[in-house]
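Researcher: Can you fold this with D-glutamic acid in place?
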Amino acid sequence: MKIGVFDSGIGGLPIVERLKEKFPNDEIVFIADTKHMPYGDKDKSLVIKYANNIISKLEKDGAEVIVVACGTVSSLIPLLCHSVQLIGIIEPLCLESCKRTANKKIGVMATVNTVNSESFPSCIHKIDRSIDVYSYACSDLASKIENRTSEEDIMSSLIDPLRYFDNSGIDTLILGCTHYSWIYELIKKNTSTISVISPTIIVNHISF
Ligand code: DGL
C-alpha cells in the first residue's frame, strides 16, 4: 500500500520513521511544504489551500491513505477536500492523554492556529467532559525547530509555556505540534513530574 504523509516541514519526519518501522512493506511518500512553513500562524484559508494542493498531489501519486503529520492541518481536516482517508494527530493524542491522566488536568502545547481552533479541548471533552484542558499557543517554536536553532534559543521559548503548565497542575502534556517531537527529551527533562506525549505515538494507533 502507498501511504502519503505531509507536514509544513521536518515535523513529519519522526512520524515517517515510525511508520517505516511499523509498516516495512508499505511505500511511504512524504511531502514537506517548507516553502510555506510556518503554517501555525498563517491565515486559515491559506493553510487549507496549501493542504488541499498537497493532498491532491499525493492522491494523484497513488496514495491510498494520507497521514496528516501536522497539528495545524489536523485541526482543519473537516474543511479539507480529499477522496482517500485522512488520518490526523488530534484524536490519537487525545485518547492517549485521557488514558494517562490521573488528576484529569491535561496540557496542550501547539501552534497559534491549532490552539485557536480548540480542536484538542473539544476532542478531549468528547472522551471525558470532566477533564480540565490548559492550552498554550507557541508562536515561534516550530520555526526555531525547523531552522535548527540552538538549545538555548529553544529554551527561551519554552520558559513561559513550561511555567504556565507548572502553575496549572497538569499531570499530562500533549505536544500538539509535530515539530515538538524533536524537542521531546528537552521538554521531558524540564517537566519531571508531567507525563509528556510525543506526536509520534499516533503511529501506535494506526492500523490498515
Ligand atoms: N508541524 C506543524 C504542526 O504540527 C506545523 C508547524 C508550523 O508550520 O507552524 O502544527
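Model: Folded with D-glutamic acid in place. The mean pLDDT is 97.
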